[in-house]
Amino acid sequence: MADAHPLHAAVAAWYASNARVLPWRGIADPYAILVSEVMLQQTQVERVIPKYHAFLDAFPTLQALANAQPADVIRLWAGMGYNGRAVRLHKLAKAVVEHHGGELPRTAADLRKLPGIGPYTAAAVASFAFGEPIAILDTNIYRVLSRAVHGVDAPSREAIHPLADALLPKPGSPITPADWHQALMDVGATLCTARQPRCMLCPLRPHCTAAPHLQSGSDPVLAEASVPYSPRQSRFQGSARYFRGRIVDHLREQPDTGVEESTLEAVLHEAETASGAPCPLALLDLLAALERDGLIRRDSGRVRLP
After folding, report:
1. Do 66 and 213 fall within a single domain?
2. pLDDT for 145-177, tens place per residue?
3. Is residue 235 in a domain?
């Protein structure tokens, strides 16, 4: 796109009046921003908000999180799913305290060197917490930019990276890089959704290649076009991840001493009945995987949170 200024101006005007009010926006605490980004990786905003507040109440600083027992962090993560995120966040806090004096690195390149931080999270924290002018590409931003420039034929995410870099607001732009990304996330979450886009309300509509095909929200091309933007997740109920979660949930409710390993057979049986599907792995295989991921500890026939 030769001139991004009209796009930036349209998005800036829309965002000024329509930005979602979220507790991790407009704050200066890099740690709180990091917590929000990790939580938002696999969980919807509505579920994250109460957990975000509870997490920061329990662990208000990186130092407090680093000092916590992993079991306490895992217990507080209940209801969020993808429990490995809690373990990774705790390990990250310990690394930052040990190697960086309790202060998060300020650039995406240095954040990437921390355990458990991928390209998106590093870029998001660097942008939102420290103002680094770096492109961010989450699912919503990918969908919005891809539709605006490439239409309904979505290219690969890798192909969008150069576009995201080219559209990054420069000094003098009507919107900062951080607000640009927040605004695109809001557009993707509320208007340019995968299957029911509300093109007539979208600030990008005059500049969007896909809008003529998607405005009605019922164009036949939408069903096909939406697939690359929003791939279907594999079935959770009855998956190995489902049964792993049931074991961790059970251990959350147990004392620090844990339970006899053999009693978890009953937990699996109850989960199989609830899901209507057999567990794809034997109990010992599930426990071995959970232990490798740092979610449980086994000792002398007993299992507990770490």
Report:
1. yes
2. 999 998 888 888 888 999 999 999 999 999 999
3. no
Q: Which CATH number goes with the domain that contains 251? A: 1.10.10
pTM: 0.89
Q: Is-catalytic flag, 37?
A: yes
Which of 37, 260, 265, 291 is catalytic? The answer is 37
Place of tokens 């009693």: 263
Any domain includes 192: yes
**Closest of 106, 115, 184, 183 to residue 144, by C-alpha:** 184
